[in-house]
Amino acid sequence: MATEHGHGHDHDHGTDATLARIEALSKEGVHRAGEHEGPFSLHVLGLGGTGAAIITELLKDAPEGFTALAVDIGDADLAPVRAAAGALPAGAVQTVALPIPTREELLTSLNRWREFLKMEYPRYYWNPNYEPWLPGDLELPAEGARFPRAVAKAIYGAEYYQNREITAALDTFAAGILAGDRTPLVVVPFALGGGVGSGIVVEIARHLSTIKLGRRPWVVGIGVLPSSADAPEVADGSFFPAINELDCMIDTEKNNGVMAVWGDLYKNPFTGGFFAVPQDDVQAFTGDLAATHAYLDSGIAKFLSADGGKHLYETLKALNWLAVPGDQWHPAIRGQQSDRWVNVLTTRRLDDAGSLASLGLNKGLRTEYAEARVFAPAKDGKKAGEAVAKAIGDVATTAVEPVVLPIDSDAGFVSVLLPRASKLDLSLFVPSRDTYDTLEWDDKLLMHSWLLDLGVMLCEPSIRFDGMGGECIWGCACWVVVPHAAIRGEEITSPVSLPEAEEAATSVTSN
């Protein structure tokens, strides 16, 4: 329900100017697409089994201009994508099964990693202390087994940097995005609890968004949160480094602290924002994990493709509007994300519209705005709209009444957006941190991905600067200008010299 706007995370949060802008969303619909906007085209880079399954669902009724690239280690989850793509033009849908190399092949690639990065980024600091981040005696998992994030990163990078199938597929995918005459919307879905999807997204997203697309189209991440019904190995603590790597990508202040050391190649690749999709809310009424996956995959696909991507576009406009300070707003400005970058997205069949419990959020979420879109004929949608409005009020406090937008459609579903949560609002965050803290150092390393090739284990404290994050795995001067307490989601209790660290970072990257 709407109440007086209380404590918030941003200095602008709760001011009259901000409230006026929020009301412009709810009452005036400033984020609705005008006649000069669109038509749109949807392009999906699906990672791991979750990404492939969402593409398969989209192919059941693909919108005009749709293209897709599904990437996984092994082919088992990619075959359904190819089967579903039969009627589309050749090349519109690609699949790449990253092969599992031998240990010797992978170590040979890892030994060349500095060459790869230097070719990609001339400013790359050639670290004389570099060593492969994977141990030489590591046993690689078999196809179909769970891959540690650090291993998935290595397998993807070895293929990409040596110009193998994935490199050509990304080039083709990007060229198709840029060649169309529609406004492109690029979506990258993956499982936040998976080893492959969450392990490679931190690399493939920047390769696509920053290098291949030149940061021109909106690129949107969709991370499906782990479920309490997942296999026990999913609750291994790896969610903690996975969400923190995204946090240091997407939160502008933290991302600036990473780029201060490592350069703008590591700028947030998700130019359109990021959605987190919970599972436990659906699991609560299906009672079956396979049914939950099918329900979510179908709902996400319907939302993304509705009216050719128009509703996704309008949702992104709303998020962009919320992320720009009130005194700086202009339609051409892309919002700078704060630590409140987690936008919770879920979908419901009409009969389930009133069940939003177990969204994976801690109690007491406060946000500016919430919106539900009811895709149904008018006679069928009213009841669902009333139910979802009440359900939103039960799980979040908003500055204005939740918006329920009726869409005359036969699709028969409801989408729900709760924007601008932080990682601390996710009920999984603290338990995953607690589990992570019990692990041995070698096990923690295998759960990381982003920045490992630079020598940085993000979730451990820096050995160079007291209070900073990013332990150097080679014992030298690698770190990030992000307080370790901020990575852990804890209050900073001791002084942290950000200016001193930033000055030192400049001296490293200028060498």
Q: What gross morphology would you assign? A: globular
The first-to-last residue Cα distance is 55 Å
The whole-angstrom Rg is 22 Å
> How much helix is in the residues?
40-55%
Distinct helical segment count: 18
- The total of beta strands comes to 15
Q: Strand content of the residues, in percent?
A: 15-25%
Largest sheet: 10 strands, mixed
Mean pLDDT: 90
Overall structural class, as computed from helix and strand content, comes to alpha/beta
Lateral strand order in the biggest sheet = 3-2-1-4-5-6-7-12-9-11
- pLDDT < 50 stretches: 1-14
Helix/strand layout:
Layout (H helix, E strand, L loop, with lengths): L15 H13 L11 E8 H11 L8 E7 L5 H6 L8 E6 L4 H9 L1 H8 L28 H13 L3 H15 L3 E9 L3 H18 L5 E7 L14 H12 L1 H11 L10 E5 L2 H7 L2 H17 L4 H14 L18 E8 L16 E2 L3 E5 L2 H18 L1 E2 L4 E5 L5 E9 L7 H9 L3 H7 L8 E6 L6 E5 L7 E4 H5 L9 H12 L2
Parallel strand pairs: 1-2, 1-4, 2-3, 4-5, 5-6, 6-7, 8-10, 9-11
Antiparallel strand pairs: 7-12, 9-12, 13-14, 14-15
Helix pairs in contact: 2-8, 2-12, 6-8, 9-10, 10-18, 11-12
Care to describe what's here?
This protein has 511 residues and is α/β, with parallel strands linked by helices. It is built from 18 helices and 15 strands. The protein has a ten-stranded mixed β-sheet, with helices on both faces. β14 and β15 (480-483) form a beta hairpin. α2 crosses α12 (289-305), α6 packs parallel to α8 and α9 (239-250) crosses α10. It is globular, with a radius of gyration of 22 Å. 52% of the residues are buried.
